[in-house]
């Protein structure tokens, strides 16, 4: 530690490592956006690694700045490493490096607050990583003491070429997804409105008894927005109903959306209409995708599906790499009523248990299945199955997607004073009117779909006030942490609410 050259070496090494990590992080992020790396591992793990690379590069930059202050030769002051043009030593290149540092802090900070920031704002801020990489390249090229060295030239050229490759990939990816962006954007660059896109039924085929598989594509055959396993879309049917269905195709295929629809005896008219009237060539407005059943990174997974609950699970399984540890328990009345059962058994015979009621005397023994399990458990199916699983699995390892709302007790409804910050509206919601209906009647740009508190379409951010969560989308603690509520069924514990809409 007393070697006068030690901190000079630390400064050089940390700077080069930070540059390399930042370049890799940017390139990795672009590979994620283009879905090139999908077969390597599940998306959540890849995104975490992308964040770790960026975070580690920031740590290395911090070490570089500290070592500049400790080094006896340079002896930078705190102001000189934090304030542009405060130093007489190559002021412009040093200022570029300081600016790159602040941009990197902003990008990493936005990543930590991803779920709390508007998606467009986060995305725009994230593009600053390209500017950061450019500034770092200029900073390193004009301030480095090893600029003339062969090894420095080799490393610099390699990093600059990687950065150029990242930009090229971003441009190509942008062109490929151009049609999808155009479908989402309003003409003339106007603010995007929450309206569904028109899609065409490419095919409608039987997957099992009482289940029809529907493939949807854009009329021009263009690319669709990226979606993650667990996502669902909303079909706007001609009979006026809006029904949510989980995407069950391959998340890497952006040319189509696949859903499976079970015809139920208690249908409100959605599944019956689809089975009786939907044919290839028909156009349907489709909203989404949305996701409140995300596949989180884990070393081991246990998937439990009941009946049509297999639909989101199939997308999760397809997104996992071959070496990832997982098992599937698939229950149903009979194999004839279980979609995808033959395909799944053929491809993963050692990873799944099929429990068809007509083949088994006893019911599904969840005590045996879940007794020693330490994996993350993802369950989708009938309410009775999910309640039974929830009673046996700790909340920290349990992930559910519900088809019907939970029965939740609520205090007697009272009027609510509501302020919409972006719309600059203030109004009172009567006790007999839902918050969503009131927002719609006042012209606030918000979409409602299921109106039962299960789809999450009407999500809105809460700025002030305490919501009374009566929905079944997320855990109440998670909603409070994210600062969101679902006004189709939820109300307010406080006399007033301020909403960011």
UniProtKB/TrEMBL annotation:
<dbReference type="InterPro" id="IPR039261">
    <property type="entry name" value="FNR_nucleotide-bd"/>
</dbReference>
<keyword id="KW-0285">Flavoprotein</keyword>
<protein>
    <submittedName>
        <fullName>2Fe-2S iron-sulfur cluster binding domain-containing protein</fullName>
    </submittedName>
</protein>
<dbReference type="GO" id="GO:0051537">
    <property type="term" value="F:2 iron, 2 sulfur cluster binding"/>
</dbReference>
<dbReference type="InterPro" id="IPR036010">
    <property type="entry name" value="2Fe-2S_ferredoxin-like_sf"/>
</dbReference>
<dbReference type="Pfam" id="PF00111">
    <property type="entry name" value="Fer2"/>
</dbReference>
<dbReference type="GO" id="GO:0016491">
    <property type="term" value="F:oxidoreductase activity"/>
</dbReference>
<keyword id="KW-0001">2Fe-2S</keyword>
<keyword id="KW-0560">Oxidoreductase</keyword>
<dbReference type="InterPro" id="IPR006058">
    <property type="entry name" value="2Fe2S_fd_BS"/>
</dbReference>
<dbReference type="InterPro" id="IPR050415">
    <property type="entry name" value="MRET"/>
</dbReference>
<dbReference type="InterPro" id="IPR017927">
    <property type="entry name" value="FAD-bd_FR_type"/>
</dbReference>
<dbReference type="Pfam" id="PF00175">
    <property type="entry name" value="NAD_binding_1"/>
</dbReference>
<keyword id="KW-0479">Metal-binding</keyword>
<dbReference type="InterPro" id="IPR017938">
    <property type="entry name" value="Riboflavin_synthase-like_b-brl"/>
</dbReference>
<dbReference type="InterPro" id="IPR001041">
    <property type="entry name" value="2Fe-2S_ferredoxin-type"/>
</dbReference>
<dbReference type="InterPro" id="IPR012675">
    <property type="entry name" value="Beta-grasp_dom_sf"/>
</dbReference>
<keyword id="KW-0408">Iron</keyword>
<dbReference type="InterPro" id="IPR001433">
    <property type="entry name" value="OxRdtase_FAD/NAD-bd"/>
</dbReference>
<dbReference type="GO" id="GO:0046872">
    <property type="term" value="F:metal ion binding"/>
</dbReference>
<keyword id="KW-0411">Iron-sulfur</keyword>
């Amino acid at each position: 530690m007393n070697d006068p050259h030690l901190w000079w070496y630390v400064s050089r090494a940390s700077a080069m490592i930070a540059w390399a990590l930042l370049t890799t992080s940017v390139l990795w992020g672009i590979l994620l956006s283009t879905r090139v790396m999908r077969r390597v591992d599940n998306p959540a793990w890849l995104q975490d690694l992308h964040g770790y690379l960026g975070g580690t590069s920031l740590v290395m930059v911090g070490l570089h700045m500290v070592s500049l202050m400790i080094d006896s030769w340079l002896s930078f002051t705190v102001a000189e490493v934090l304030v542009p043009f405060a130093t007489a030593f190559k002021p412009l290149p040093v200022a570029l490096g300081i600016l790159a540092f602040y941009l990197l802090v902003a990008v990493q900070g936005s990543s930590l607050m991803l779920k709390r920031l508007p998606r467009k704002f986060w995305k725009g801020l994230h593009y600053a990583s390209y500017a950061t990489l450019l500034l770092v390249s200029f900073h390193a090229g004009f301030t480095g003491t090893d600029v003339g060295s062969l090894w420095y030239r080799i490393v610099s050229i390699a990093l600059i070429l990687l950065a150029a490759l990242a930009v090229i990939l971003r441009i190509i990816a942008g062109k490929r997804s151009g049609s999808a962006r155009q479908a989402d954007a309003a003409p003339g660059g106007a603010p995007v409105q929450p309206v569904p896109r028109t899609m065409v039924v490419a095919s409608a085929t039987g997957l099992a008894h009482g289940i029809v598989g529907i493939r949807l594509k854009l009329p021009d055959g263009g690319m669709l927005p990226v979606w993650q396993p667990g996502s669902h879309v909303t079909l706007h049917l001609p009979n006026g109903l809006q029904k949510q269905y989980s995407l069950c195709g391959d998340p890497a295929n952006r040319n189509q959306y696949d859903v499976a629809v079970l015809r139920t005896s208690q249908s409100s008219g959605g599944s019956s209409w689809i089975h009786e009237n939907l044919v290839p060539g028909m156009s349907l407005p489709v909203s989404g995708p949305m996701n409140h059943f995300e596949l989180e990174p884990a070393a081991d997974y246990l998937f439990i599906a009941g009946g049509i609950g297999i639909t989101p699970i199939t997308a999760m399984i397809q997104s996992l790499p071959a070496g990832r540890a997982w098992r599937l328990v698939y229950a149903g009345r009979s194999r004839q009523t279980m979609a995808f059962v033959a395909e799944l058994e053929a491809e993963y015979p050692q990873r799944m248990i099929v429990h068809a009621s007509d083949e088994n005397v006893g019911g599904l023994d969840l005590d045996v299945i879940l007794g020693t399990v330490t994996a993350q458990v993802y369950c989708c199916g009938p309410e009775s199955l999910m309640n039974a699983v929830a009673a046996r699995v700790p909340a920290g390892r349990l992930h559910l997607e519900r088809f019907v709302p939970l029965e939740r007790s609520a205090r007697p409804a009272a009027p609510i004073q509501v302020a919409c910050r972006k719309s600059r509206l203030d109004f009172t919601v009567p006790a007999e009117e839902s918050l969503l209906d009131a927002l719609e009647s006042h012209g606030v740009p918000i979409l409602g779909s299921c109106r039962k508190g299960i789809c999450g379409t009407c999500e809105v951010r809460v700025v002030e006030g305490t919501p009374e969560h009566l929905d079944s989308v997320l855990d109440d603690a998670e909603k409070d942490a994210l600062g969101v509520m679902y006004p189709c069924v939820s109300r307010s514990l406080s006399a007033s609410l301020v909403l960011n809409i």
